[in-house]
Amino acid sequence: MRVLHVTPCYPPTWAYGGIPRVVYALARAQAAAGHEVHVWTTDAMSETTRSGMPPMREEHGITVHVSRLWSNRLAWHHQLYLPGSGVPAVAPQVVHLHGHRHLLNWRAFRMAREAGIPVVHMPHGTAPRLERKPLLKRAWDVAFDGRIPHEADRVVAVSKAEVRQLLALGVPGDRVVRIPNPVHLEEFEDLPARGTFRAAWGLGSAPIVAYLGQVTPRKGVDRLVSAFEGGLEGATLVIAGAARGMALPQAAGVLTTGTLEGRDRLALLVDADVLVYPSTHEVFGLVPLEGLLCGAPVVVGDDCGCGELIHEAGAGLTVGSSVEELRGHIRLLLNDRPRAAAMVERGRAHIAAHLDPHRVANAHLALYEHLCR
Question: Does the reported pTM lie above 0.70?
């Protein structure tokens, strides 16, 4: 099977959130299964830098095609990805689109339709007009790719929450398939020693409450800071991620690190006494699952897809919009370490059984083969 994944961001780009991590894990597993896998992406990296990757490279059996963006600033501040080159000429049997409202998808979708190639769309929670610039998103939908979720051959939802989103948008139910995100398990086989992050940042032995991810309005970081300020004395709140659409919080006892990558990222997860992910309208959320693999007990927003999984597995605590409830959950996990450890072990077992990249890749490949018959 020859597959073309289309994504605006791909490793080494980590500051743009979960999409590059998901595409990377899925593409690697599909290539390892013997399929010809191509990725079309851009050189987006961060607010001030580009990835510096060559126009084409081979890694882990994947051919990665990189288009230079016309404007790195527009990509970072407005999610406006303007690739300077077109769809690579790879003659795919299936086109797999990731995310929504970017020109790569629009170009690849048109190419696929003209060539009669099946299209799988994976919005990753971006199909609704949530959070920022709803009027601009509406205009984009009219001018460009707003109909892709309705017209793709299949739309992959990663959770029950995303299924509900898509059906509410009018996507035909018979085109929606639920397949969870993969977690790249190999990354967690050789973890940094406990204490590495504490030593690097001079944090001593005080409990660490951590948030890792983009800092945007719907991630709930402001509520986390309020919970921390209202009665978690003696702990340090670490906020690791780049701010997009809001300022980084400033408060006593709060450490902001910016984006952490590679082993620095893992070191924080290993040292976190509690990892909090209080996001709303999140269709999945990889960070809490990665935290569990590093041994961190988790508190997760109860309306997100990851919250569904955490609840089903008994792998952590879920929380609504209440700051008091959030504070209480954090205290519980800090004070009842045996209960927290049991939740972590249940989470690790559930992830290994259901979110292994090879298992998830096989589900996608079965979908591709069905569409190609």
Answer: yes
